[in-house]
Amino acid sequence: MQNILKISETDSTNLYLRKLLNDSDLPDFFCVSADFQMSGRGQQGTIWESNRGENLLFSFLIHSEKIPLEKQFLLSEIVSIGICNALRNSNLDTKIKWANDIFYQDKKLAGILIETIISGDKMKYAIVGVGLNVNQIEFSKDLSNAISMRQILDKEVDCQAILENILTEIYNLFETFDVNNSEDLQKKYFELLYRNSGYHLFEKKGEKFYAKILSVAPDGCLKLLTDKGLEKSFYFKEVKFVI
User: Fold this and answer.
1) Which residue range forms the structural domain that includes residue 93?
2) What's the average model confidence in pLDDT over 200-228?
3) Same domain for 230 and 127?
4) Mean pLDDT in residue range 194-207
5) Positive or negative: CA dihedral 61, 66, 71, 77
6) H helices present in the chain, as ranges
7) Per-residue model confidence as pLDDT tens digits over 219-239
8) Which residues pair with residue 123 across a beta bridge?
9) pTM of whole model > 0.85?
């Protein structure tokens, strides 16, 4: 399963992998890993910063036809659970901050960017980009919420071993996944959710309110119950945690 192309630098591993896919057929879980990204991207145009050679910056291809478009968030659940499983193998207890950031306590350890290629009413391919802070120990002032594995474990970490472990965990989850029997996956995702119990502070367009998480639907919709007893539903970027 391990099919990893290691490169020194690129604009974005997602873009690099997409260009490769345009030129030739690629096997499932083909992965591109870079030491440095000149234009690393996060969700909805945000920038992913990383020191050269200190972290994991990689993208991999999933032949994702078995997941229908209306339930495509299930793929995000598979990826984020797989990353948490791999990090648990390194003695890190991490959580998934909705929709798909990986947190250690109240700090961001990794981000995920999934871009899909659609054929008809199904996804044909998904390009999954991951940025994981591994050995970086100093972050810019704009990244005050960032943390790395090295900072947590107080030791240098083998990036290649972590990458291979992550790909294996995600591959195993995807291979055994049945879209018609996704309840166990969704239950596991909820168990790993950051702030999945009790009332916490959220913000929508400058308005702050307390709410608790009720559920996350297969399309990614977050359902909250406010402390006023009102149920509210939000899609990605419509609401955010106040941390």
Assistant:
1) 3-191
2) 97
3) no
4) 97
5) negative
6) 13-23, 73-88, 149-153, 159-176, 183-191
7) 999 999 999 999 999 999 999
8) 118
9) yes
Count of domains observed in the chain = 2
Which residue type does 51 have? N
Largest CA distance in the chain: 55
Q: Give the type of residue at 207.
A: E
Cβ(212)–Cβ(230) below 8 Å: no
Joined together, the tokens standing for residue 212 give 């608790």
| CB neighbour burial string for 50-71, b if at least 16 within 10 angstroms, e if fewer | beeebbbbbbbbbebeebeeeb
Rounded distance between C-alpha atoms, residue 20 and residue 103, angstroms: 31
pLDDT of residue 44: 47
Pair 114, 67 in one domain: yes
Instruction: Give the separation between CA 106 and CA 230, rounded to whole angstroms.
Output: 26
Predicted confidence (pLDDT) per residue in 139-174, tens digit: 988 888 999 999 999 999 999 999 999 999 999 999
Q: Which of 107, 40, 81, 43 is nearest to 237 (CA)?
A: 43
Check if the beta carbon of residue 170 is closer than 8 Å to that of residue 162.
no
Both 51 and 100 in one domain: the answer is yes
In Å, how far are 34, 64, 159, 172 from 92, measured between CA atoms?
24, 29, 15, 20
First to last CA, the chain: 38
Cis omega before residue 146 (within 30°)? Answer: no
Structure tokens at 86: 């791999």
146-177 burial, b at 16+ Cβ within 10 Å, e below that, comes to: bbbbbbbeeeebebeebbbbbbbbbbebbeeb
